[in-house]
TrEMBL record:
Annotated signal sequence range: 1-24
GO MF annotation: an example: polygalacturonase activity
Gene3D superfamilies documented for this protein: Single-stranded right-handed beta-helix, Pectin lyase-like
Family annotation (InterPro entries): PbH1, Pectin_lyas_fold, Pectin_lyase_fold/virulence, QRT3-like
Protein source organism: Trapa natans (Water chestnut)
UniProt keywords, alphabetically: Signal
Protein name, entry field: Pectate lyase superfamily protein domain-containing protein
Signal as UniProt keyword: yes
Length: 482
């Protein structure tokens, strides 16, 4: 390395250290930060290493690893069998180790070594593995694993994941509060062979899972625990490979995507078989363009399950729920908008402690088969919703299902002293009218009757007049607010 270049890198890394903790977002540190001088010394050491050997590829089986300056670690050069016959676990782990020992360039987050986009290439092959693939140490970032198929062997541990971003116990870079940052898993088919799961992402930051096909999981396709900003996009997940109407659908199990962390995004993803499509128990996640036909609601499946009562903070936008619905436990801050529900799919609001607040279910399309299925249902088996505020279920269009809403209009017409408009069949919450407005219109022979709103119980609006008149009464009700 040129001395001038080294100086620039050194200054850059020093700035990373000085300002790194300012940018840290959430999460507490596991270990106390190293002192400033320790870290500078550590970096000097690393710079010397890099200067001494610009390309450190020390795999015994393949010192070249695709050329002296290449940072592509081709797994066949470490002995992996691209035909998928022989067990390639050791070879793939060797390629991953080589990448972690390879050249690096400062840090991303403090303590996360920047590998400059080094790639572990599966070279379009299929590899049998008998153990989860883990990096030998944590604290790594800016690495790519891409381009091939991984298949679990018949003795793969059923609790494991094909790719596992756990940091080993002997994690060297204990100065980072995250295991990994900016690891990209791209263009991969992951076949769990009905033994365990696809990808495990614990306590990591900015992990990208892009254009992956994850099948045959028995537990979870992708499991995110803690950390934040795992982005899952343009991917296909299914326990069984099917295109719908599968004779075994009743038996589908497992969860395609389990988000137990915050600030993740699932975009443009199809989930074609699993008991649960997306399970969410962390905040501030967003789903967009997700098509779930994983298991019909009638067979006990759920498309999207929001299991974070009173702290939902989830946006579901432009999704396609296909014979399978959405369940939200005590939702507080939930958007379900611009989505399509097909095959009598519906939304369930499930009471845990009776709270529903800040929920918008608007501008969706619902299509069913005239079985009288409500577009939104309340599950009050644990008790009724008692704290209801800022709930808007409105402007959805419905074909072949039963409209449910928190806002409604109606009218009654007759000659007499009492007019009743019953909103029971359309309002979502029983016996709850927060706002009522009415107008009484009569052309009755010069009479100006006195009239008033008499009763609003059981979602029925009763208007009475002092004298009998032929009149129409128009009513607007809203049960969303306090
Ligand atoms: C309305 O009812 C009253 C009696 O209750 C009757 O005298 C009147 O003619 C009725 N008006 C109309 C328009 O039917
Ligand atoms: C309102 O109507 C309900 C029946 O729907 C009745 O039980 C209740 O007594 C009425 N309240 C008043 C004030 O008339």
């Amino acid at each position: 390395m040129e001395p001038a270049g080294a100086l620039v890198v050194f200054l850059f890394m020093a700035m990373q250290i000085l300002f790194g903790s300012v940018h840290a977002h959430g999460g507490s540190r596991v270990a106390g930060p190293l002192s400033f001088s320790d870290r500078i010394l550590g970096m000097q050491h690393e710079l010397e290493m890099a200067a001494a050997s610009p390309a450190v590829y020390s795999s015994p089986s393949s010192p070249q690893a695709g050329g002296s300056n290449s940072r592509v670690y081709r797994v066949t050069e470490y002995g992996a069998d691209p035909t998928g016959k022989r067990d390639s676990t050791g070879a793939l782990l060797a390629a991953m180790s080589a990448a972690i020992r390879g050249p690096s360039d400062g840090f991303l987050m403090d303590g996360i070594v920047n590998y400059d986009g080094a790639r572990i290439s599966l070279e379009g092959g299929s590899y049998l593995i008998s153990r989860p693939l883990r990096f030998p140490s944590g604290g790594a970032g800016n690495l790519v694993i891409h381009g091939g198929t991984l298949r679990a062997s018949d003795d793969f541990p059923t609790v494991g994941f094909l790719i596992d971003l756990s940091a080993p116990a002997t994690k060297a870079a204990a100065s980072s509060s995250y295991n990994y940052e900016y690891i990209t898993l791209r263009d991969l088919m992951l076949d769990s062979n009905f033994r365990g799961g696809g990808v495990f992402v614990p306590n990591s930051l900015r992990i990208s899972i892009d254009n992956c096909y994850i099948a045959h999981f028995s537990t979870e396709g992708i499991s995110v625990h803690g950390g934040h900003e795992t982005y899952i996009r343009n991917s296909f997940l299914g326990q069984h490979i099917t295109a719908g109407s599968d004779p075994g659908e009743r038996k589908f199990s497992g969860t395609a995507i389990n988000l137990m962390g915050n600030d993740n995004a699932v975009t443009d993803v199809v989930i074609f078989s699993a008991a649960v499509g997306v399970m969410i128990s962390g905040q501030a996640n967003t789903l967009s363009g997700v098509h779930c036909y994983n298991k019909a609601a009638g067979f006990g499946g759920t498309g999207i399950y929001l299991k974070l009562p009173e702290n939902t903070q989830t946006r579901i936008v432009n999704c396609y729920l296909d014979y399978t619905g959405i369940v939200a436990e005590d939702p507080v801050q939930l958007d379900i908008v611009d989505s399509f529900f097909y095959g009598d799919a519906y939304v369930t609001l499930k009471s845990i402690n009776g709270v529903v607040n800040g929920v918008n279910i608007v501008n969706n399309m619902f299509s069913g088969s005239n079985k009288g299925v409500d577009i939104v249902r309340l599950d009050q088996s644990n008790g009724p919703f008692i704290r209801v505020d800022q709930v808007v279920v409105d402007r959805n269009n419905v074909v072949g299902m039963r409209l449910r809403s928190t806002v409604a209009r109606g009218f009654a017409r007759g000659n007499g002293t009492s007019w009743t408009v019953d909103f029971g069949p359309v309002l979502l919450f029983p016996n709850r009218l927060n706002h009522v407005q009415y107008s009484l219109s009569t052309s009755g022979g010069g009479l100006f009757p006195r009239h008033c709103l008499r009763n609003t119980s059981e979602n029925r609006v009763v208007v009475e007049s002092d004298v009998a008149v032929p009149a129409s009464v128009y009513v607007t009700v809203d049960q969303g607010g306090k």
